[in-house]
Amino acid sequence: MSAPPAIVATNVSRTYELDGVSVPALRGVSLTVAAGDYLAIVGASGSGKSTLMHLLGGLDRPTGGTLVIGGRDVATLSPPEMARLRNETIGFVFQSFHLLTRTTARDNVALPLVYRGIGRRERRARAGAMLERVGLGHRMDHRPNQMSGGEQQRVAIARALVTGPSVLLADEPTGNLDTTTGQSVLALLESLNAEGVAVVLVTHDREVAERAHRQIVMRDGLIVDAAPVAATGPGEPA
Ligand SMILES: Nc1ncnc2c1ncn2[C@@H]1O[C@H](COP(=O)(O)OP(=O)(O)OP(=O)(O)O)[C@@H](O)[C@H]1O
Ligand SMILES: [Mg+2]
Prior knowledge:
Layout lengths: L6 E12 L2 E13 L4 E6 L5 H8 L7 E6 L2 E2 L5 H11 E4 L11 H10 L5 H14 L15 H13 L5 E5 L7 H16 L3 E5 L3 H6 L2 E6 L2 E7 L10
């Protein structure tokens, strides 16, 4: 028996209201993130990728359609229930890191565990282990402004992973990194995926997208193409 899907979005839309003007950022998107999936989302700037990621991560709610995360319809959840579902299920890596600037790497990573009610000692131990995992055992007590961009990105990934999520959502995880650092961040995401964590990433980089098991292409708030990536050999049907 295969595991139930991690996230199912059915005909979801998201319209922002801004100064009396409606901005339809998503206009009816259906997408299933399977357990253990590895999915890349590509598309032009403004096509709705980040808006979709925020919905998939339970950071925002759709204005239309149905969104089920970890088997739960988000429309039925109160804000605290939603926060709890997010904390238990999802790791989110923002393009701009969103780290606390006056706080050490270790305490940044430990933060999601505060909401779990885990004691300080245990939090520090788990955060330390996760920083070791992303290769930052020697940077535990550095603050973000004392670290390189790639190091900060890895702290953000460690923070997303410290709670043991089943889905990791990463918006442009390699966007601000040089090629070598980007490759090592990607290798880290792929090793997590090999352990069964579903990975969804947004990227503008074709090579990054092609490493995923499947890609979806967005345009003007819609999915215009969804295909497995080169999974078929020559002569096989695409
Ligand atoms: N909070 C907001 N209020 C109003 N409009 C918004 C808001 N956030 C995004 N939008 C609009 O919604 C559309 C989709 O934005 P989104 O951030 O999802 O695009 P994106 O595909 O992630 O683009 P990029 O590649 O530049 O990050 C854009 O037209 C954007 O201007
Ligand atoms: Mg974006």
